[in-house]
Specification:
170 residues, two-stranded antiparallel ribbon, 4 helices
């Protein structure tokens, strides 16, 4: 189960809690809250682990692109050295080597940028999820502390507006 689903469960648990008569406090099943928090704690490290894996993959792709570029440049240089005796062939080989090198550099840039964009996207999603988790926990704590309903309604409206914007972007 992902963190957002767990946050929704926590939110439902708080919203559906029974009111304490003659107060604006509610009665919440402490064990249910602890269970949800434990599930959240176990889910978040998995998402962090996934983000680390993506960064590692990006580094491996960059290293592979560099090795490939070095190999191509080495091959081009060897080829050019074998044909040094003929000036026109040498010039042609140097042009080809530069073309190959530029192509390899371009490929390396594309791979690096693609990996960085992907890692940034995953980390951005994780950041949003963590923000929602923190907001839900804060709302829960505020409700447990008995904050006035007017402040709750204003905060929920702000959070709802943020979520609407996020859903519209998707």
């Amino acid at each position: 189960m992902d963190v957002l689903e767990l946050i929704d469960k926590l939110d439902d648990l708080i919203h559906n809690a029974r009111a304490v008569p003659l107060t604006d406090q509610v009665r919440i099943d402490r064990e249910a809250i602890y269970e949800l928090l434990d599930e959240m704690r176990s889910t978040i490290p998995e998402e962090v682990k996934q983000a680390r894996w993506i960064v590692k993959e990006r580094q491996e792709m960059l290293a592979e692109a560099k090795r490939e570029a070095d190999r191509i440049v080495g091959e081009a240089r060897e080829h050019a050295q074998r044909e040094v005796s003929q000036q026109e062939i040498v010039r042609k080989a140097e042009r080809e080597a530069e073309d190959i090198l530029e192509g390899a550099r371009q490929r390396e840039r594309e791979v690096r940028l693609g990996a960085e964009d992907y890692a940034d996207e995953v980390l951005g999603t994780l950041e949003v999820n963590l923000g929602k988790f923190m907001a839900a926990v804060q709302r829960g704590r505020e409700r447990l502390q008995g904050r006035p309903q007017v402040e709750e309604a204003a905060q929920e409206a702000a959070i709802y507006d943020d979520e609407q914007i996020e859903y519209d972007d998707e």
